[in-house]
Design goal:
Three copies of one chain form a homotrimer.
Chain A: H1 14-17, H2 22-28, H3 74-77, H4 80-84, E1 87-88, H5 114-132, E2 137-138, E3 144-149, H6 154-166, E4 170-175, H7 187-197, E5 200-205, H8 210-216, E6 222-227, H9 233-247, E7 254-258, H10 265-274, E8 280-284, H11 293-301, E9 305-309, H12 312-315, E10 321-324, H13 335-342, H14 349-352, E11 360-362, H15 383-401
Parallel strand pairs in A: 1-2, 3-4, 3-5, 5-6, 7-8, 7-10, 8-9, 10-11
Helix pairs in contact in A: 5-9, 5-15, 6-15, 7-8, 9-10, 9-15
EC number (chains A, B, C): 2.1.3.2
Pfam families (chains A, B, C): OTCace (PF00185), OTCace_N (PF02729)
Biased composition (Low complexity) (chains A, B, C): 47-61
Chain lengths: 404, 404, 404
């Protein structure tokens, strides 16, 4: 599978908009140079490498870079002074492997090679350490992100905004409800207008394909934050990133997906993305809500083993990752049918007793009742850490497309 | 009255979330060390102490620290260079007395000892001077506040946001109307999710107790921005702070509360909080809208003198602080009854002629007609300065719970 | 035409609010001194003048300053080091000619002399170069803008917010829908309250004159973002600025206005403002939607030539600027009448073939169907650059009224 580079439309007017071409400005920032060494003002201090991508020595990439040992804490990479100070953009480098994403639209996970994902995850991991160390970052200082949500999504919009803020940037919200679109403006015009004010656009739309078509007219990078039943690349990336952060690797794992697998966009994208790894997939779904044949055949074509189960209990013993999703009552033929089966698809502390000690419970959230609140205190419950990882993945993507 | 420390729930996973424990990070920042000395780059300049808490020399604390002489202007504390530059977090210290609030939820004024309040007011006072000097602060640079308002409150939400911005931080808004709660997500889940993205949460909810129960699951500090008829700690604090800023002290003052004292949460909390000082309370309320017995008996139990009056005029002569509140027409049995009495509860320039020269007029705002606009130009009208003080109190609280 | 300086109300309380008087703080910042020289930390580097107003040498002001040769690229003005670093406020100066706008309300274009506009345009032009160079600016670091929109206007609110962010400041949004005004608070009270939290207010209101009357009580500068059929100064300024940026000068140009010229506030303000230059105005409007007599007579009184045309084609040959506006269907007596004429007022690639090679197409946006999307790729289509220029004009105004 080769990545499909998606360039913003070439500037209409080279003189006027040259400065807007992220490719060029990326070049300006010497992306083809080796990672720079940062010396703190105090000459007594040793040189400090603040490369976003930790030195390969500290991040041995095994099996195609989908597994790694944790890098040394930043406290050892950074002098106290350097830790106190904010990290300026010029001191952070994007891995050469990610250069081709600079200035690109992020529309689908199909854009990413396995290696690029691995590097993106390393960037996200390093950013996570920095945030948890309470480092303030100036990577995107002065840059503006336009947040355009034509559909409600608290988690996605909040984490994109927090991601931009934590990189030192700022956010302009385009409120569809109170927007020019009321005056009959086209999506394309709204997007082009916001691209006049912002450096990057995050776009969510209920119509599949709407984000890609809108991005065609846009000279600034557009990140797809979900287009209906279409793509939601950052969700799939944060899911795989979470498995990596929780278990150290994705290869060799058995991932069990539970709930409405027929309508769940999240599990469809995730299943496709996971075919890049050596895994086993298990499905637990109510009748008539099975994983669609086209997904199953795609997964099979990649040589991935798939198994179906009637209940969580049966699938649990060998499961490394339990991926829970919502089941909407209205999907069932009758109230009785719902009552009859839905018990098999609710995770309780009792069921957790049969799970592996190191199993990970995930959920795209929001949940309704498919995971009982008592499970939250179980250290294997990773769904809130999963939500947090969404912020780090979005930080990594924003830093990458904006060429920092 | 002993403070009730309210710690966020201990991290589920020590390794993953250790960095999230503000207590520890506070320790990291050497809070137990004496205030650091800041030297500007120019070696010729004298060392400058930018401690958030002005040196006790400049702030002699008398009578339990509820009164003080104004500290010298920052212009004398700071060199021009230092004034030009932003104040980095590392140059600001929180008083040892406030350490126990670092990383804590702020749910009720009952958490604060009189001494802690006094120190909080000193911090707020210093921040006010810095803002009025147009100093830009980096105290909370890189930190994110989640603003979660399940009920409209322009003043509170705007001043919390402005407070965070003026400290160098940023704000993510959780719009209930357009939020996952529509998809049936629980308040607790929404709060835990936002705590994945933010460093501190500001929560407003119509249901009494909702904020406290939501905070129990939250590993980041939660600040109560009002929970229905329950608590609204920052309002009570800014009210007392305003009396202090306007009159220099609270002790010995006669505070007259006017309006609907039966339903006014604000006056209830304020009355309770004021019992920590040596004051006299006067009430002016329409029939059936008197201060509730439980409040009166609580105040009496603290040895505070309380007096009732039928009209503002009668209560005015000895009044140092006139605290006006709204009277909702619908509270009255009949239109006639409303017409009959409400005149007694409206403040006019004419009535002001009978007031002390140094009296202070306060109002939690918004007002409707209980204070005539002509009073605004009277220097004793403090209600807009009171609103501004809300921002400084919120700045002080944010800086404190985030351990700066 | 003499400018009408509009000062915020003098502070009620000199001690408390002195620090709020932008005039004074402007003085503090030595606005009457000659532009300062900025030396980068490296002594080896030559002194760099970062004055917001490029040296007159590089900006020869001809014909009343409404035309100029482009200044040298900042790359020649700035050392690489200086380019990497953010530009601190202290390194930027406002032209003496703009001093009288420091701390002023911006309510109408009538406030501006031709010279002030010219200097404002120079500031906007320099800020545009800085943004396109991806310079991060600290000019308004720590300052807060209140965004109060009582009427929907995506473009105006988004570009004001982006402008504030790009200057290093932050924005507090006052959502009318979810605001105290629901509780019956007056506009004046809401504005005074927000002025307690913010350093500058941007106010949009459907009622003509509402912004000016609200600004009378406000001690912080208020910028009029449109008051119904009243004023919308930043729109008129960005229109003239765009002509200047696109053609290098306004003098001698023939500007053709197309569409509903009777109800279009934008074209009314623009026509008035353009009378300050040596231009020719052409009108193309449907029957009953002609430019109002009072505007025509005002324009005539300034000795400006006006011509009427029935269709775009007829007016096109000598047109340098084609200013398109919307025609609302409902303005027409009947569906037939609409169908009959509206074709004459739609811009297509076919019509563009008859236009000058250097003609500029403008539109206040949003457009519906009056400009076919195929025109967008024509280099003469300037309406998106026009939208972007709105951000630079707003940056220049914010920097000016806040005295940086």
């Amino acid at each position: 599978m080769t990545p499909e580079p998606l360039r913003p439309t070439p500037p209409r007017d080279s003189i006027r908009t040259r400065a807007h071409s992220p490719r060029r400005s990326a070049g300006d920032r010497g992306f083809l140079l080796p990672p720079r060494i940062h010396r703190t003002s105090d000459p007594g201090l040793p040189p400090t490498d603040l490369s976003l991508l930790p030195p390969s020595g500290s991040l041995p990439v095994v099996g195609g870079g989908d597994s790694y040992s944790h890098p040394p804490p930043l406290s050892r990479l950074l002098s106290p002074q350097a830790q106190a100070a904010a990290v300026p953009a010029s001191h952070l480098q994007v891995s050469p492997l990610l250069h081709c994403l600079v200035g690109q639209h992020i529309l689908s996970v199909r854009q990413f090679t396995k290696e690029q994902m691995s590097h993106l995850f390393n960037v996200a991991h390093t950013l996570r350490l920095m945030v948890q160390k309470e480092r303030s970052l100036d990577i995107l200082k002065g840059r503006v992100m336009a947040s355009m949500f034509y559909e409600v999504s608290t988690r996605t919009s909040s984490s994109f905004a927090a991601a931009m803020f934590r990189l030192g940037g700022s956010v302009v919200h385009f409120a569809e409800a109170t927007s020019s679109s009321q005056k009959g403006e086209s999506l394309s015009d709204s997007v082009q207008t916001m691209s006049c004010y912002a450096d990057v656009l995050v776009l969510r739309h209920p119509t599949p394909g709407a984000v890609e078509s809108a991005s065609r007219q846009c000279r600034k990078p557009v990140i797809n934050a979900g287009d209906g039943v279409g793509e939601h690349p950052t969700q799939a990336l944060l899911d795989v990133f979470t498995i990596r952060e929780e278990l150290g690797t994705v290869n060799g794992m058995t991932i069990t997906m539970v709930g409405d697998l027929k309508h769940g966009r999240t599990v469809h994208s995730l299943a496709k993305l996971l075919t890049q790894y050596r895994i086993t997939l298990r499905y637990v779904a109510p009748q008539n809500l099975h994983m669609p044949p086209e997904i199953c055949s795609y997964v099979a074509s990649k040589g991935i083993k798939q198994e179906e189960f009637k209940s969580i209990e049966e699938a649990l013993p060998d499961t490394d990752v339990l991926y829970m999703t919502r089941i909407q009552k209205e999907r069932f033929a009758s109230e009785e049918e719902y009552r009859a089966c839905f018990g098999q698809f609710i995770l309780t502390p009792h069921i957790m007793t049969r799970a592996k000690k190191k199993m990970v419970v995930m959920h795209p959230m929001p949940r309704v009742n498919e995971i009982s609140a008592e499970v939250d205190t179980d250290p294997r419950a990773a769904y809130f850490r999963q939500a947090e990882n969404g912020m780090y993945i979005r930080m990594a993507l924003l830093a990458t497309v904006l060429g920092r």
